[in-house]
Amino acid sequence: MKTDLFYYTGTGNSLWTARTLAQKLGDARIIPISRIPGEAVESRADRVGIIFPVHMWGVPRRVIAFLNVLAKDPSRYYFAVAVNAGQVAATLLQLKKLMHTKGLSLSSGFEIVMPTNYIPWGGPGPKDKQIMRFTKAGEKIKTIADAVAKREKRAVERGPLWQNMLFAWFNRLSFSHVPTMDKSFWVDDKCNSCGICHTVCPCGNIELKEGRPVWLHHCEQCLACIQWCPPAAIQFGKKTQRYERYRHPEVKLSDMIAVSTPQGEEEKITESV
Ligand SMILES: Cc1cc2nc3c(=O)[nH]c(=O)nc-3n(C[C@H](O)[C@H](O)[C@H](O)COP(=O)(O)O)c2cc1C
User: Fold this and answer.
1) Is residue 34 in contact with ligand 1, taking CB distance under 6 Å?
2) Exposure of 179 by Cβ count < 10 A (0-12 exposed, 13-18 middle, 19+ buried)?
3) Residue 264 — very low, low, confident or very high, per pLDDT cuts 50/70/90?
4) Handedness of CA 25, 29, 34, 38 (dihedral sign)
5) 3-class DSSP state for residue 212?
6) pLDDT in tens, 194-230
7) Is the pLDDT at 260 greater than 60, yes or no?
């Protein structure tokens, strides 16, 4: 049985989740959402997964845009994995509702907790805690693979009620401001004009002017630019010079560049473990 896993990622947690899940399921393709042009996308796989980071207690804009082009087919099994840092809140409920309005039915939705990449609030935390999260995430992916293999229908996972209500409201408040939140990015003297920020940005929001990044205000806030900058020269607001950067340890810059390159080969994973 074939599976297509569409993923979106800023720092590799969702890519790693997609890869690990693909290995468990076997005969699966992993396809970066950021490489999909704005035209209709049809999947011929029996099972279609959407794997993405939770952004501001909700579904990232780029993933919502992807739902607009994903072809509807009631014979397919649609499922989702919301990769987060401990506050999934009502993200999967939001996704289920959004999919419903587009004629797509989400059969199951899972959350996975990974280290945070939201650097405006701090670094990813101590390495031993990160490793604990990777280990638990690996175990959870096994459970997800079992459920998906059986095409199980179940309620989507969600946070506590108070979190869902409060944070869904925060999400609605912040959503329209996301594209221009890049006004808080700036670059310090460590910038060596390598241009990696421009290359790694999954939405073409960074231009180089005299070798330095300029943000174009159609940002998705994935934070790939700040997190992948080799000399940690990109900053956001006043505090990030003090904070450690985060990238998933098994995801390489070359994987991310492939993600942000519009034309390329999809990664096909056939091994089942
Ligand atoms: C703009 C932004 C907002 C975020 N909001 C949330 C959130 O509401 N809840 C949460 O648990 N994690 C949040 N995070 C953390 C990410 O969801 C988490 O680190 C995720 O694993 C990153 O996945 P990625 O490496 O595939 O991008 C946020 C991260 C970013 C960049």
Assistant:
1) no
2) middle
3) very low
4) negative
5) strand
6) 999 999 999 999 999 999 999 999 999 999 999 999 9
7) no
Distance between CA atoms of residues 53 and 57, nearest Å: 10
Residue whose C-alpha is closest to residue 104's, from 74, 80, 138, 61: 74
167 shares its domain with 202: no
For ligand 1, is residue 53 a contact (CB within 6 Å)? yes
pTM of the model: 0.94
Amino acid making up residue 22 = A
* H helices present in 37-126, as ranges: 61-69, 91-101
Q: Is residue 32 part of a domain?
A: yes
**Neighbour count for residue 5 (Cβ, 10 Å):** 29
In a domain, 67, yes or no: yes
For residues 59 and 106, membership in a common domain is answered with: yes
Backbone angles phi, psi at 261, to 5 degrees: -90, 120
- Tally of domains within the chain: 2
Residue 15 sits in the same domain as residue 131: yes
Q: Quick check: is 204 in a domain?
A: yes
- Output the residue whose Cα is nearest ligand 1's atom 2: 55
pLDDT tens digits, one per residue of 16-62: 999 999 999 999 999 999 888 777 888 999 999 999 999 999 999 99
Residues 47 and 147 in one domain: yes
Is ligand 1 within 6 A of the CB of residue 119?
Answer: no
Query: What residue numbers bound the domain in which 238 lies?
Result: 178-257
Give CA 219 to chain center in angstroms: 14
